[in-house]
Specification:
mainly alpha
Length: 93
């Protein structure tokens, strides 16, 4: 994925455009609306463990992943609403 970013300055627009194109420094994260299934995916039957889901969960949501897992567990403990890389609820005790 390529990201183009440009801010307007006093210089000519063409010069500014070429000066602003550069490779973006990556933290190794992922973009939520672009599923990268190479970093992991849920099992088809919905039995993905927290450990499995954390592989891609921390890449998408960083420090918010644990909080989102706890929030998902409340309304959807059976993981009815899921996709290839959705947040997995904690197992029932």
């Amino acid at each position: 994925m390529i990201l183009y970013l440009m801010t307007m300055e006093e210089r000519s627009s063409t010069e500014s455009l070429y000066d602003s194109l550069r490779v973006q420094e990556s933290k190794g994260g992922a973009y939520l609306n672009y599923r990268d299934l190479d970093i992991g995916r849920n099992n088809n039957n919905g039995t993905t463990s927290y450990a499995q889901a954390s592989i891609w969960g921390f890449k998408y949501f960083e420090r918010n992943f644990n909080r989102l897992v706890r929030l998902k567990t409340i309304p959807d403990p059976d993981n009815f609403f899921r996709n290839e890389q959705s947040i997995t609820p904690l197992p029932s005790l």
